[in-house]
Amino acid sequence: MIFEALASDLRLEIFRLLVRHAPGGLVQGDIARELDIPSTNLSFHLKALVQSGLADVAREGRFMRYRANIPRMLEVIGYLTENCCSGDPGACQRFRDASPAAHILPRRSS
What we know:
This protein is α+β, with helices and mostly antiparallel strands.
């Protein structure tokens, strides 16, 4: 269900926005304004992210605040990379160092 939720370019963009605003999150109106999405369309996508476990929602008065579920995101990343390079941490680290995202990837201990 997680990968299905992220298969939509728009949901991926919403999730990335929530990650950038973690841990505080954003209310639905702010998300709609930030991404220039009609609220009716946005509700559908937010529901999918919440159902997948990638986002949480809490009522704040008359507003709904959405937050990226960072522990769940890290769990997914861990699952995807758990057996990288047949468990050879040195080889895996060389790939991480060569990645365009190297500046944001934490170094792994051997």
